[in-house]
Amino acid sequence: MDDRPLPRPGEDLEDQGLGFDLGTLGRRRALRVLGLGAVALGVAACGGPPAPAATSPGEIPEETAGPFPGDGSNGVNVLAQSGVVRSDIRPSFGGPTGVAEGVPMTLELTVADLARGGEPYAGAAVYVWHCDRAGGYSLYSPGVEGENYLRGVQIADAAGRVRFTSIVPACYAGRWPHVHLEVYPDPASITDAARAVATSQVALPEDTCRQVYAQPGYERSVANLGDVTLAGDTVFGDDGGASQLATVTGDVTTGYTVALPVRVDPATAPGSGGPPR
């Protein structure tokens, strides 16, 4: 169970209301519980694949924000802090002084608005966050609760592009290496997680990860990567990360550029993906 405040503190968990239930179950599980996914349940009962989230054709899949979003939906809201709009997300800001170390990574996301025929989503605010090279998430993980590094927002330019300077994240137990992202319609919306028009994740290619994890500081990631596959990942496994697998150029010496097109449809109902992971 997460540490969200209860809307009805004096009552049992099952009596906290629909909004709380949806946040707990996640969008896909909630659809099943509410009966909206009855057809999907019938297929699943026969051993078939689960129904996909309700997205437009070509839209990046809606995924879980996980238990460490830092967007106000599960504890602290880093998006309400001055200085969160920045390109270099390696250092903490606003007081904390920690700096995340690791193999350099430039993350380039190009956001397209499917409701407008796929034109660049200029002016959209994109929030990204990911773990450090030890697998910890700032604001939440033991030892880095007081830091807020590896979190930041960029505003999409006329081409719909945002660019972040960061480090290659670790592979922690049970998950394929990834970067979280949320897309908001404009900068004024970022303090309210409910206004995100898309929540998803970027998958990193295996060959890049193996090169990086051979470097000092990433020792724990070697065994963890050996225990997971992209196809079997709890998030990307639905389609093997087909529309979330980044293209990568560079090397461990000069750093890597990780790029992914992010196609969103603000007209579709956003969700929180699956259960936190």
UniProtKB/TrEMBL annotation:
Residues 99-174 form the Intradiol ring-cleavage dioxygenases domain. Keywords: Dioxygenase, Oxidoreductase. It comes from the Bacteria. Residues 50-71 are annotated as: Disordered. One of its GO terms (molecular function) is dioxygenase activity. Pfam families: Dioxygenase_C (PF00775). PANTHER family: INTRADIOL RING-CLEAVAGE DIOXYGENASES DOMAIN-CONTAINING PROTEIN-RELATED, PTHR34315. This is Intradiol ring-cleavage dioxygenase. It comes from Actinomycetospora rhizophila. The lineage of its organism: Bacteria, Bacillati, Actinomycetota, Actinomycetes, Pseudonocardiales.
